[in-house]
Design brief:
Layout (H helix, E strand, L loop, with lengths): L2 H7 L29 E4 L3 E4 L18 E5 L20 E13 L5 E7 L14 E7 L12 E6 L24 E2 L11 E2 L7 E6 L10 E12 L7 E10 L9 E4 L6 E6 L2 E6 L2 E6 L5 E6 L13 E6 L4 E3 L10 E7 L10 E7 L7 E6 L4 E4 L8 E6 L6 E5 L2 H4 L6 E5 L7 E4 L8 E6 L9 E6 L13 E6 L8 E3 L10 E6 L9 E6 L9 E7 L7 E5 L7 E8 L13 E8 L4 E8 L5 E6 L4 E8 L2 E8 L14 E6 L2
Antiparallel strand pairs: 1-4, 2-3, 3-12, 4-11, 5-10, 5-12, 6-7, 6-11, 8-9, 13-42, 14-15, 16-17, 17-18, 18-19, 20-21, 21-22, 22-23, 24-25, 25-26, 26-27, 28-29, 29-30, 30-31, 32-33, 33-34, 34-35, 36-37, 37-38, 38-39, 40-41, 41-42
């Protein structure tokens, strides 16, 4: 996370969760065939169910007790009734059913937690038939639809393809084989609901509720679940719910498959410079390789049994194996790692090369290194004096490292921060590109990852006038071509005005001979009064002199994306992850951090909700499974981190 995002994050109000878990909803699981406390509306196609009422059964069973509730878009074709435009497109929704409850919330922050699945017969239908549901929390009369600020969660019918007509993300699904299951409960309003593709297992969701910090609590709010049939009145969908409750803190381990990759304890107290120095065990910097198999961490823990003095070192772990120190790089007392970055699979070795920025002593300057995990050898890329080399990025094959430098010997620009490229070889060749003036800044480099042009493009942010279109000196996103030909090397991806616009954290995923690929970045260019969001710029030609920009995320003004990582193709022809990314976002209204995986602007989104920001978001793709890596100082996995040390965690999106 760069300095701009850290400054933005510091404005967030992060409150400690309430100590006790109050029972805000008296009937959260609909046990005993009961809707006590709940109000149904719309078509009233709502009712309690058991697993035996689903032909074909319920994978994974009922999350709590033996009962749950269903909301159906009606089991038969209908005419008349209320209609609405719910999801910001022009297709009408029909057969709307609602389930609501009004509660008093005695704590802040607060989150709505529920288990859900949304089976549908629309899974193979035309795009405009995209049934949907949403969850809203509001005070008083429901806000006019559509609304984002009061809508906590929304999904559209699961599809056999990643993208479709609705701007809601897709629900998860069981499979793509027609099985013709139904809801069978005589006398129920849901009897006969057709679910042609069966029912996927329940999934847990937990989302912060946007409550004002002052005054209060208590807060009186209404929670409303709603289903709707988009575009027709024929094919059924059903929202199944269980364990609906309001909680002061989300249980992240039950939202996603989370593993704790380090498990440290202890501290050290020593006499230094005439005083006592307390040194707790902690992890600070983290990286994960594109395949999601190799973790790198900067930690002062004794992870390999050879660090009893708790001096920060760099360690790596393959899969679930032991931690191995990056040999040849010895950090002495006071030394510190500034950043880490891992390459892709080289030959058969995942994450073979690790780029490291570190100072090895308390008074040393930050230098850049590359460690070869297979050969256990260290290459010193910089050895400059009186200046720093920071924030390295490494290409997929580990042959190119881009980094920021304030060293005039490398940049020719005095102490001004510039981007420098190391392109390997015995002479450690470096190339600097500085634009039209020596006093402008280049930062946040990112390398492209396609094997055909691996490392030959660099995306970065700069206030230089690289492409003769940035005379106002605003920080813009640029792309630089490191390969021949030598002309038209710079492409300006954004062209904005005013210091209120923030363009930051550029990334690339692929390139080919025709289009030179995509550049991704965070920006508030769509609305400077709102938070940062994820954008994609698809180059239309090899020079990227034109292209198409797409905003992938949107949300309330309180929602800020503070980090994201683009999942990259594993080969030049792998298009299956072209739209995938993971993210970290803060919600200033709820006080929670959300970390998750998303497929493009409307594809499926999976999140975990945390009660404080993470450190160093990383992402990979282990086969078809997205893997999210991060450092977090909380106990996420069943009492494994009761001392609340900063530890490395992985979340697998399955």
């Amino acid at each position: 996370m760069n300095s701009i995002l850290r400054l933005l994050l510091s404005t967030a109000v992060i409150a400690a969760p309430a100590a006790a878990r109050a029972q805000v909803i008296a009937n959260p699981g609909f046990e005993g065939d009961s809707l006590a406390g709940w109000t149904i509306g719309g078509t009233n196609r709502v009712g309690p169910l058991q697993a035996s009422h689903l032909s074909g059964g319920l994978p994974g069973g009922v999350p709590g007790g033996t009962w749950f509730v269903g909301l159906s878009t009606t089991p038969t074709s209908t005419t008349g009734g209320a209609t609405a435009l719910i999801d910001n497109n022009t297709t009408t929704e029909y057969d709307i059913a609602t389930l609501s409850i009004t509660v008093t919330i005695p704590f802040w922050p607060a989150a709505l937690e529920f288990d859900w699945t949304f089976p549908s017969s629309e899974q193979d239908q035309d795009n405009q038939f995209d049934d949907l549901f949403d969850v809203m929390v509001y005070q008083g009369t429901p806000p006019t639809d559509p609304t984002v600020n009061n809508r906590l969660f929304a999904r559209s019918a699961p599809r056999n393809v990643a993208q479709d007509f609705s701007n809601f993300t897709n629900a998860h699904f069981l499979g793509t084989t027609v099985v013709n299951h139904t809801i069978n409960r005589a006398g129920s309003a849901l009897d006969g609901t057709s679910l042609r593709y069966g029912v996927a297992a329940f999934r847990r969701e937990c989302i912060g509720i946007d409550l004002p910090e002052f005054p209060g609590p208590p807060y009186t709010r209404t929670i409303r679940f709603r289903v709707a049939d988009q575009g027709d009145r024929n094919f059924d969908s059903a929202l199944l719910l269980d364990r609906v409750q309001v909680v002061p803190r989300c249980d992240a381990a039950q939202q996603m498959t989370i593993s704790q990759r380090t498990n440290t304890s202890g501290s050290d107290v020593r006499l230094k410079d005439g005083g006592l120095q307390y040194r707790p065990v902690q992890a600070r910097k983290h990286a994960i390789d594109p395949a999601g198999r190799v973790q790198a961490v900067a930690s002062n823990a004794n992870l390999d049994g050879n660090n009893p003095s708790l001096v920060e070192q760099v360690y790596l772990q393959l899969d679930q194996g032991g931690w191995v120190r990056a040999s040849g790089l010895t950090l002495n007392d006071g030394g510190e790692v500034q950043a880490l970055a891992l390459s892709g699979v080289v030959g058969t070795t995942p994450g073979r090369y690790l780029a490291i920025a570190a100072r090895t002593t308390a008074t040393g300057r930050v230098q850049v290194y590359r460690w070869d995990r297979q050969a256990a050898t260290l290459t010193t890329i910089t050895s400059t004096t009186g200046c720093d080399n920071t924030n390295p990025a490494i290409n997929f094959s580990g042959t190119v490292v881009a980094f920021e430098s304030t060293c005039s010997a490398l940049t020719g620009a005095g102490t001004t921060r510039k981007i420098v490229l190391w392109t390997g070889g015995a002479t450690n060749v470096v190339t600097a590109f500085q634009g039209s003036a020596t006093n402008c800044i280049g930062r946040s480099p990112a390398l492209n990852t396609n094997s055909g042009h691996d490392g030959s493009y660099v995306a970065f942010e700069s206030n230089c006038n690289h492409a003769t279109n940035n005379a106002d000196g605003n920080f813009e996103i640029f792309r630089y071509r490191n390969a021949n030909p030598a002309t038209n090397r710079f492409a300006q991806i954004t062209n904005t005005t005013g210091t209120a616009v923030i363009n930051t954290l550029p990334q690339m995923d692929r390139a080919d001979n025709t289009t030179a690929g995509n550049v991704y970045f965070l920006s508030n260019l769509a609305d400077t009064a709102r938070g940062l969001h994820v954008f994609q710029y698809a180059c239309a030609n090899a020079n990227c002199s034109s292209g198409t920009r797409t905003q992938w995320t949107d949300g309330p003004a309180t929602q800020w994306y503070t980090g994201f990582r683009k999942l990259i193709p594993s080969t030049a022809t792998d298009n299956t992850v072209i739209l995938d990314f993971v993210f970290e976002r803060q919600n200033l209204g709820t006080g929670f951090t959300e970390v998750g995986h998303r497929i493009g602007s409307t594809g499926q989104e999976t999140t975990i909700t945390l009660d404080q920001p993470i450190l160093d978001l990383g992402a990979g793709r282990d086969g078809t499974v997205p893997v999210i890596g991060f450092v977090y100082a909380r106990d996420l996995v069943g009492g494994q981190n009761t001392d609340l040390n900063p530890e490395v965690f992985n979340a697998r999106v399955q």
